Amino acid sequence: MMICVTTTTRERGRPRSFDADAALDRAVEVFWRQGYEGTSLTDLTAAMGINRPSMYAAYGNKDELFRRAVARYAEIDMAYARDALARPTGYEVIERFLRANADALTRTDRPAGCLSIQGGLAAGSDDGHVAQFLAASRLAGENALAERLERAVADGDLPAGTDAAGLARYVMVVSEGNAVHAAAGVDRAGLNAVIDIALRAVPRQS
């Protein structure tokens, strides 16, 4: 789960001649498949159907484009996380998040795995800034989940004394591990088998 960012940068001097959101969606897929370090500007402009001046004018440099792509990914591909947080009980929040996450990781129309994991796995010439950015984005999602689970404890649908922060981290470790395995070819049924086991550890009121 990540924080969504909206920007309104526009080309100077003339209107755009391309669909900015559609081009950004194509950039998301390139970064997702190849990671930040493995993606060149040529890869991006070819996939987006624009030239470099148009890319720079609309999105900024490669780093800025990547951040826009991650925000777009959070808004579109991880919308299920916001739905999960709205579930009425802590257990339902966790189950919905993990099940929907497994579905998202194994969609046939998207790359396997998760952009927020795969985008920064390789260390390169950016001094780790991309990996740090993605880690901070994931931590923001973990904190949002922890806050929701704290409310569940306060509401009494999770047992008193439950470590909401620890439980949120556990859930994120399961989802991130599933992302790595999905990218390696584990299918949806395999991920859900892991979730079945993981849910047994979620505390519930007797």
From TrEMBL:
<dbReference type="InterPro" id="IPR001647">
    <property type="entry name" value="HTH_TetR"/>
</dbReference>
<keyword id="KW-0804">Transcription</keyword>
<feature type="DNA-binding region" description="H-T-H motif">
    <location>
        <begin position="40"/>
        <end position="59"/>
    </location>
</feature>
<protein>
    <submittedName>
        <fullName>TetR/AcrR family transcriptional regulator</fullName>
    </submittedName>
</protein>
<dbReference type="Pfam" id="PF16925">
    <property type="entry name" value="TetR_C_13"/>
</dbReference>
<feature type="domain" description="HTH tetR-type">
    <location>
        <begin position="17"/>
        <end position="77"/>
    </location>
</feature>
<dbReference type="InterPro" id="IPR009057">
    <property type="entry name" value="Homeodomain-like_sf"/>
</dbReference>
<dbReference type="Pfam" id="PF00440">
    <property type="entry name" value="TetR_N"/>
</dbReference>
<dbReference type="InterPro" id="IPR011075">
    <property type="entry name" value="TetR_C"/>
</dbReference>
<keyword id="KW-0805">Transcription regulation</keyword>
<dbReference type="InterPro" id="IPR036271">
    <property type="entry name" value="Tet_transcr_reg_TetR-rel_C_sf"/>
</dbReference>
<keyword id="KW-0238">DNA-binding</keyword>
